[in-house]
UniProtKB/TrEMBL annotation:
<dbReference type="InterPro" id="IPR045121">
    <property type="entry name" value="CoAse"/>
</dbReference>
<keyword id="KW-0464">Manganese</keyword>
<keyword id="KW-0460">Magnesium</keyword>
<protein>
    <submittedName>
        <fullName>NUDT8 protein</fullName>
    </submittedName>
</protein>
<dbReference type="InterPro" id="IPR015797">
    <property type="entry name" value="NUDIX_hydrolase-like_dom_sf"/>
</dbReference>
<dbReference type="GO" id="GO:0046872">
    <property type="term" value="F:metal ion binding"/>
</dbReference>
<dbReference type="InterPro" id="IPR000086">
    <property type="entry name" value="NUDIX_hydrolase_dom"/>
</dbReference>
<dbReference type="GO" id="GO:0010945">
    <property type="term" value="F:coenzyme A diphosphatase activity"/>
</dbReference>
<keyword id="KW-0479">Metal-binding</keyword>
<feature type="domain" description="Nudix hydrolase">
    <location>
        <begin position="1"/>
        <end position="101"/>
    </location>
</feature>
<keyword id="KW-0378">Hydrolase</keyword>
<dbReference type="Pfam" id="PF00293">
    <property type="entry name" value="NUDIX"/>
</dbReference>
Amino acid sequence: SFPGGRRDPADGDAVATALRETREELGVAVAPTSVWGQLRTLPDRHGMTVAPVVASLGPLEALILNPNPDEVEEVFTLPLAHLLREENQGYTHYRTASGYGYTLPVFLNGPHKVWGLTAIITELTLELLVPGQY
């Protein structure tokens, strides 16, 4: 999943929350000028509203992560080229007890299967970054 958490009273907005959570969870200070924008808000399975924020962290080779072990079990990345390959893209179909069904994206063949809200945010980001390719 992506860094995230509840908005603190000191956070001015969703962007400030995202930057603080990234600093607290990954030890990465992201400058507000590195923020590209905010995706549409999404509901999570607990009824909370998630406000994804997209920012540039610069080259991964230059990035030094210091994950908080109390909040982060593991960190991994997937190249854009991997996410864009059709063989690594799929969908999972769900049905609720009431019979309502829905479909969510899933990204396969990496170190982990990317699914749920993380896959939805990944899909929205790909639609924004490479609209002609995804």
